[in-house]
From TrEMBL:
Residues 39-227 form the SusD-like N-terminal domain. It comes from Dyadobacter jiangsuensis. Keywords: Cell outer membrane, Membrane, Signal. Its main location: membrane. One of its GO terms (cellular component) is cell outer membrane. This is Putative outer membrane starch-binding protein. The keyword Nucleotide-binding does not apply. InterPro entries: SusD-like_N, SusD_RagB_dom, TPR-like_helical_dom_sf. Belongs to the SusD family. Pfam families: SusD-like_3 (PF14322), SusD_RagB (PF07980). Coiled coil: none annotated.
Length: 573
C-alpha cells in the first residue's frame, strides 16, 4: 500500500475508532462540538478508504511484528510443535502450562486486537452508507464495502479458529455494553463465510500494485473456513453437513488453484534468477519477487514493505526476521562462530526458535531430498570464523555446535541458540547497509497467502471426504515443484493428519499461522503435537489436560457481566 495514506486524516479517523469503543461512561456523556462521530468525521470516499488503510496497516504489523511484541510471536506460532524459545528467553515461554491460563495477557491481546480490526471494518461499512458521501462510481463503493467485509471476515476467522464461538458485532459501538451474546463456533464461521461470499463478488481478480486484497484471497479463506466449519460440524455429530462443507472447501480452493490466475512457480524467475546458486523455491523469497505484479503467479495476497517509506516516516515498514528469528552463534558457538554478518544469518537474537522437529524431523530419511531442504534454502553449513578454532574457514560440524561443552545443560542451552537458517528470514544481500542499517531487517514484501497453502487446504479437505488419493495428489503438486524424490501415496495420508501437518511445516515454515491450523483441526491434535515436539520438557510435564481452543480471556468473561459465558473446555477454573 505504498503512497496511499494521508497521515493527518488517517489518525483522526483512527481516533474515532478508539472513541467508539470506549467504555468510560463519563467520557461518553460529554458532547463537545468537535467530537468525532461516524456522521461528521467523513466527508469524502477517500477518507472511508483510509479506514481500510488502517486495517491493512494493522494486519501488516500483526504479521511482520516490527515492534517485536511477545504476544505476536505466539500468534506466529510460538508454543506450537514448530517453534519454542531459546534458553536466554525462557521467561517468554508459551509452553509452560503452569503459567498459561485464561488470565494470560497474550490471549487478551490477541482477542481484543481482532475486535479492533472488526471495529475498523464496521466503521468503514457504516461510513460508506452515509448519504453525504459520494463515490466516483458504484464500483468504487462496492470495492470499499468488499474490502471492509473481507477484513471483518478475517477477524472472525481468526477468533473462531483460536477461541471458538464469539460475539458477532456488526455495528460501531457507541455506548458501553455488558451483555454480548455468544455465537457458536459454527455460527461464527458461517458469519465470516457470508461476509466473504459478499466480498468475493466485488473484489478484483488482480490489482495494478500489490497489497490490496483480491478475489483469490476471499476464495482462499472461504476454502479454509468451509474446511474449519466442516471439521466442527463432524465433531458435533453433523456428518452430512460437515461433508457438504468439505465439498465447498474443495470447490473454493479449486477456484484459486485451477482458475487460471494463479499457478505454482516451477522455473527460475525474478530479480536474482540468473544467479547459479539459487533455485525456484529460493526465488520466491527474494526482494522484488514476492508480489503477483512482480511476475510471481503464486502470490495471492502479500503485505507491503517499502524501504523508502521506512527511511522517510514509516519505521514499521520492515521485516525484522533476521533479528527475531535468527540464531545466536556468538553465544551458543562462540569458540567457532561469532559476529552478526551474513555468514551467520545476520544479527539474530533468537526471539523464537525452530524445534528439532522443524530443523530435522520433517526431512528425515526419504523426505530429505527436497529443494526446501537444500543448502541455499535451509542453510546448514556454517564456516568457522574464529581464527583460533580448528574449524576456521571450515564447516563446523553440528555435533560440535550442539555439544561442544562437557556440561549437558550448557549443551542443551547452546542447541537452542544455534540452528539452520531459512532463506525466508535472512539474505546474503541486505538492503540499507550504506545508510547505516545493520543486518537485522529484510526489506522485501511478505506473503499473507501463497498458492501452496491453498493446495494444502484442498488436500486436507479431500482427505476429510475420504479421498486420500486425491489428497496425496495435491500434496505431490508441491513435492514435484520441490523436486522431492519421494512422492506420497494414499497410504501416507494418516488419520491424524501428520502427513499434511508435516508438509505444511516443510512448505510454510515462517509463513503459516500454526496455532490457527492446529486448533481448527480439533480433537487432541494440538496437544499431542505440542507434547511430542516442544523443545523444552516443561510442555510435556505441565500440559496435563486436553484442549483444541484457547480460553476466552478472563477479562472478557468478567466484563460481559450481564451474560454468563462458559469457559472453553480444559480452561475452567
Amino acid at each position: 500500500m505504498k503512497n496511499i495514506l494521508s497521515r493527518k486524516s488517517f489518525w483522526a479517523l483512527m481516533l474515532l475508532v478508539n472513541l467508539t469503543s470506549c467504555d468510560n461512561d463519563g467520557f461518553l456523556k460529554e458532547n463537545p462540538t468537535t467530537f468525532y462521530t461516524v456522521d461528521n468525521a467523513f466527508s469524502t470516499s477517500a477518507q472511508v478508504d483510509q479506514v481500510l488503510v488502517g486495517a491493512y496497516a494493522q494486519v501488516r504489523d500483526l504479521w511482520a511484528n516490527p515492534a517485536e511484541e511477545g504476544w505476536i510471536f505466539v500468534l506466529r506460532g510460538n508454543g506450537t510443535d514448530m517453534y519454542d524459545v531459546a534458553s536466554i528467553r525462557k521467561g517468554s515461554t508459551f509452553n509452560n502450562y503452569g503459567l498459561i491460563n485464561a488470565d494470560n495477557n497474550t490471549f487478551y491481546n490477541i482477542y481484543s486486537t481482532y475486535y479492533q480490526l472488526i471495529s475498523k471494518a464496521n466503521l468503514a461499512l457504516e461510513a460508506a452508507e452515509l448519504p453525504h458521501i459520494s463515490f466516483s462510481s458504484p464500483a468504487e463503493k462496492a470495492y470499499i464495502v468488499a474490502q471492509a467485509k473481507f477484513f471483518r471476515a478475517y477477524g472472525y476467522r481468526n477468533l473462531a479458529e483460536l477461541f471458538g464461538g464469539v460475539s458477532i458485532v456488526t455495528k460501531v459501538s457507541k455506548a458501553p455494553q455488558y451483555n454480548f451474546e455468544r455465537a457458536t463456533r459454527v455460527e461464527t464461521y458461517q458469519f465470516a463465510i457470508n461476509d466473504l461470499l459478499e466480498a468475493e463478488k466485488d473484489l478484483p481478480e488482480t490489482t495494478v500494485s500489490g497489497g490490496r486484497v483480491v478475489k483469490g484471497a476471499a476464495q482462499h479463506y472461504l476454502a479454509e473456513l468451509y474446511l474449519a466449519m466442516g471439521t466442527q460440524l463432524v465433531a458435533d455429530g453433523k456428518s452430512a453437513e460437515g461433508q457438504a462443507a468439505f465439498a465447498q472447501s474443495i470447490a473454493y480452493a479449486g477456484k484459486v488453484i485451477d482458475g487460471g490466475t494463479y499457478g505454482l512457480m516451477t522455473s527460475r524467475f525474478g530479480s536474482r534468477s540468473t544467479e547459479a546458486q539459487g533455485n525456484v523455491y529460493w526465488d520466491l523469497f527474494q526482494e522484488k519477487n514476492v508480489n503477483y505484479q512482480d511476475g510471481n503467479r503464486e502470490c495471492v495476497w502479500a503485505l507491503q514493505v517499502d524501504y523508502a517509506a521506512y527511511r522517510a516516516e514509516d519505521g514499521r515498514s520492515k521485516l525484522p526476521y533476521s533479528r527475531t528469528y535468527g540464531p545466536v552463534f556468538r553465544d551458543g558457538a562462540k569458540d567457532h562462530l561469532t559476529g552478526t554478518l551474513e555468514d551467520v544469518g545476520g544479527r539474530g537474537i533468537a526471539q523464537i526458535i525452530p524445534t528439532m522437529y522443524v530443523r530435522d524431523g520433517v526431512y528425515a530419511d526419504k523426505f530429505g531430498a527436497d529443494l526446501r531442504n537444500s543448502e541455499i534454502v535451509f542453510r546448514r553449513v556454517f564456516y568457522g570464523n574464529v581464527s583460533t578454532s580448528p574449524y576456521f574457514k571450515k564447516p563446523v560440524p553440528w555435533e560440535v555446535l550442539y555439544n561442544g561443552s562437557g556440561d549437558a545443560t550448557t549443551n542443551l542451552n547452546n542447541t537452542s541458540l544455534v540452528y539452520p537458517v531459512s532463506c525466508k528470514i535472512a539474505t546474503d544481500k541486505y538492503t540499507g547497509l550504506a545508510d547505516g542499517e545493520n543486518m537485522s531487517n529484510l526489506f522485501r514484501d511478505d506473503y499473507f497467502i501463497r498458492l501452496s497453502e491453498t493446495i494444502l487446504l484442498r488436500a486436507e479437505a479431500k482427505q476429510r471426504t475420504g479421498d486420500k488419493a486425491g489428497a496425496a495428489a495435491d500434496v505431490n503438486l508441491l513435492r514435484e515443484r520441490a523436486k522431492a524424490t519421494y512422492k506420497v501415496t494414499a497410504a501416507d495420508m494418516d488419520d491424524s493428519f501428520n502427513l499434511i501437518l508435516d508438509e505444511r511445516a516443510r512448505e510454510l515454515i515462517y509463513e503459516e499461522a500454526r496455532w490457527n491450523t492446529l486448533l481448527r483441526m480439533g480433537g487432541t491434535i494440538a496437544v499431542d503435537r505440542i507434547k511430542k515436539y516442544a523443545y523444552w520438557p516443561e510442555a510435556k510435564a505441565t500440559l496435563t489436560f486436553n484442549y483444541n481452543l484457547w480460553p476466552i480471556p478472563q477479562t472478557i468473561l468478567d466484563t460481559n457481566k450481564d451474560v454468563i459465558w462458559e469457559q472453553n473446555p480444559g480452561w475452567q477454573r
